[in-house]
Specification:
This protein has about 270 residues and is of the alpha/beta class. About 40% of the residues lie in helices and about 15% in strands. It has 9 helices and 8 strands. The strands form 2 sheets. Strands 1, 2, 3, 5 and 6 form a 5-stranded mixed β-sheet that branches. The protein has a 3-stranded antiparallel β-sheet with strand order 4-8-7, with no helix packed on it.
Length: about 270
């Protein structure tokens, strides 16, 4: 049966007193004023110190003054089609990187605008928080010099391809294989059955050009367990999947729809 119960009167009274334009701000101010603790001290603690707090406040002020970013900051997108959400995310990223390339803002401010304030960072948050640290900390100097600059300037966007359809985050149970081919001095990446399809990695569905792939290392018929591999998955020319790769977006979710969770499989790549 359909419920016809009316909303609580206290909620109606709050809604009637708050205009659409000032609703969030006035409610926030009211709650902060009534807190039993020092709001400013908590803010400093959560932001990692007074210096970081000031940097973020300056970034917020910049975004509010920017004619493009200010409109995107205000967009309440939880009821918006997720394709439009991702388009807005990409437009926002393009605008911020354009400002950086023109010398209008620093790399530090660019990163704060992208990852720390306002609109969801989506898959870009995983790029910065997981993909980049992995290739920074688990590579030789030669690999570092060849790969990290591409990731830092967003010429590459990467994701963390671990979770599989049948194995979730049970790392020991992962079944994607990376077989070493000594005659070619290469690794062959393969998804042996549907349960080994990578499923749910954030940033994979639309954004990523590369991934840190977790797969079983097979050498001469011996299974050496799970290792990670840097794998390009989309063309840098037209963003299409590379040969032998099936990739896509898993679709809408209950939340965080700016994050394009995806699926990925390999046919002896």
């Amino acid at each position: 049966a359909t419920s016809t119960r009316a909303p609580p009167q206290d909620l109606l009274s709050v809604e009637s007193k708050v205009s659409p334009n000032q609703g969030k701000a006035s409610l926030h101010q009211k709650e902060r004023a009534g807190a039993s603790f020092d709001v400013e001290k908590l803010s400093v603690l959560l932001m990692g110190g007074a210096t970081n707090q000031e940097r973020k406040r300056q970034a917020v002020a910049f975004a509010e003054a920017d004619p493009i970013l200010s409109q995107m900051q205000r967009s309440a997108h939880y009821s918006t089609d997720r394709r439009d959400i991702i388009k807005t995310l990409l437009k926002r990223l393009h605008h911020i990187k354009h400002l950086e390339d023109q010398g209008a803002i620093s790399l530090e401010l660019s990163n704060i605008l992208i990852f720390d304030i306002g609109f969801e960072s989506g898959g870009l948050g995983l790029h910065a928080g997981v993909f980049v640290p992995t290739i920074k900390n688990m590579t030789s100097k030669e690999q570092y010099d060849a790969w990290v600059p591409h990731a830092m300037n967003l010429h590459w966007i990467g994701c963390y391809a671990q979770t599989e359809l049948s194995h979730g985050s049970n790392v020991r149970g992962l079944q994607t294989t990376a077989t070493f081919l000594p005659e070619a001095d290469e690794f062959e990446i393969h998804t042996p059955f549907v349960g080994a399809v990578k499923w749910w990695p954030g940033g994979l569905g639309v954004l990523s050009t590369h991934c840190v792939l977790y797969a079983r290392l097979l050498v001469g018929g011996t299974d050496y367990g799970i290792h990670n591999f840097l794998v390009q998955i989309r063309s840098l020319e037209d963003h299409s999947p590379l040969p032998g790769i099936t990739i896509g977006d898993i679709g809408p979710k209950f939340g965080t729809n700016a994050n394009d969770n995806g699926y990925l499989s390999f046919n002896r790549v």
